[in-house]
Amino acid sequence: MRRPWLAIAGAVLLTSTPCPTDLVAQAEGPFARIAIFHPRDGHTLEFEAGYMRHLAWHQQAKDTWVWYGWNVTFGERQRWFMYASFGHSAASLDSPVAPADDERDNVLNVAPHVEHWSNALYEYLPAISRGTGVPQPTARAELLTVDLNPGAGAAFESALGASQPAGQGERLWYRMVAGGSAPRYVRFRPRASLSAIVDERRDQGLPDAVSNVIARSTIEILTLRPAMSLGLDSPARK
Questions:
Q1: Within the chain, which residue ranges are assigned CATH 3.30.70.100?
Q2: What does pTM read for this prediction?
Q3: Which numeric CATH code is attached to 125-222?
Q4: How many CB atoms lie within 10 A of CB 63?
Q5: Which end of the chain, N or C, is more open, meaning fewer C-beta atoms within 10 Å of its C-beta?
Q6: pLDDT in tens, 44-87
């Protein structure tokens, strides 16, 4: 999408549905596109139908990226819709599918039903993460968003690198490159169920050493929407 409010450009459909290991293998680089929409009050069904029509357009256009779609289930943005695509090189970001036609389809099917939107570019940080940078398509995911005081990014990353939690699941950190207030970081913790997130709540916290550089942090729980995702396996509902 060329304009922020037409933020679905580049949504993807693979010609076949990959298994999770295929999703990991398709990573070409560290960059991710992450966007969130607030459907207009009373337009949720129209938004979802329009978004799926837009994804069908991408199918016809033979787009090649994999996209995730989630609803915010717990958090200040409850019922908002988030989409993302991971594991891209910088060069691949320059090759969206038919930009003018993509925008036209967005104007027709999606924009009329959206009240608020944001669209950002992030870079995966393997040194402070556990995983590949391409999340497994689990039924649930915990999303931590951290806004820092100006100039605190290097100290924040250093402190996280020196204090790694002992858990075994994916813990994926991304640094915002463009698209909002900076410095901003997000962390995904994909899990198979809500109970798995709750049981691992001790891993939610951040080291005490970073408390003085954080301006604001929020924790949300996302629910994967397989029908509003492209190229993903459909996990069990949990």
A1: 4-123, 125-222
A2: 0.83
A3: 3.30.70.100
A4: 23
A5: C
A6: 999 999 999 998 988 888 888 888 999 999 999 999 999 999 99
